[in-house]
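Hi U.,

Before I forget, here's the chain from the pilot set. I'm dumping it here mostly so it's searchable later in email.
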Amino acid sequence: MPGERRHGFVTGGTWCLDRNRKIDIWPKEDSVAIASGLEERGGGSACNLAIDIRRLDPAIPVETIGLVGNDDAGRKLLAEAEAARIDRRQMHVCDDAPTHATEAFVSSASGLRTHISELGVATLLSPDHFDFLTTSGRIMHLGLPGVHPIMDNRWRDDANGWVTVLKSARKAGLETNLELCTVPPQRLRALIHPCLPHLDTLIVNDSEIGALAEIETVTAGETDVDACRLAARTILMGGAMRLVAVHFPQGAIAVTRTGPAAFVPSVSVPADAVFGPNGAGDAFAAGFLYGLHQDWPLEDSLWLGHAAAACSLRSVGTTDGVEDWRTCLSIAETWGRR
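Structure:
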């Protein structure tokens, strides 16, 4: 709001119901895997970051913008937002399609996750659902390009609806961040490159930054940190961002327009503490953005990102493992750095 010091977060975009299951192994086609432990939780970038921020600091205001169906799944998501005391005045309820739902499987054999989504109302989300005239938030976290067809395509004079929303948020005085989705590299570049001139920060993983910059950053499952640093700087110089952060299993780097890149190793999480990776990337983004919001040093913000992600690994659900920021840091320090 003009003339006022902005405070808090606005999350926008994907709200979906995750149906989380553990499976013994991801099966080949025409074969069988054994599943156990169904848990239903809110998922998606707008949901996860909003709840994570509230868990990190229950005093900080968080607003959200999204679309759910008028069904049981939608009511569960509304209830989760209400329980987290998120301002959900712009969680629109739609009668024309079911709530976006995702079957989320975590393989015990590999530790990897596989998501199968029924998009439902995600196909109907458009820039018309976003209104920044009354928000007092400071940081806008938006996602997920690639699973919202209207947003993914041209919107009036803009390359896509994500550009329209980012431009509107910045015009209203918000800082902008975009979360990505795992889609084929060529499609990712087509969706994200037009957004870069309208972003203040970009937080991605090692594979995503490589896809955006067309630089090989992961080889045989191992992250090339130097390649990530080069890719991050390449993307930084191609957009309006003041910083680009890249997270990966061994740590995270952040590059800015001035000064050297910062590198902080990740938390050495005990193997028996890990229950699932769902939401760990969102938790990292929440911790890192919270540190930036509080004007912490860059390295401290990266470490809180790692601490929040490490705590997130303790649960199959996307947000259940995240604690308040002091507890996250205490747990991380107990486990130590890689």
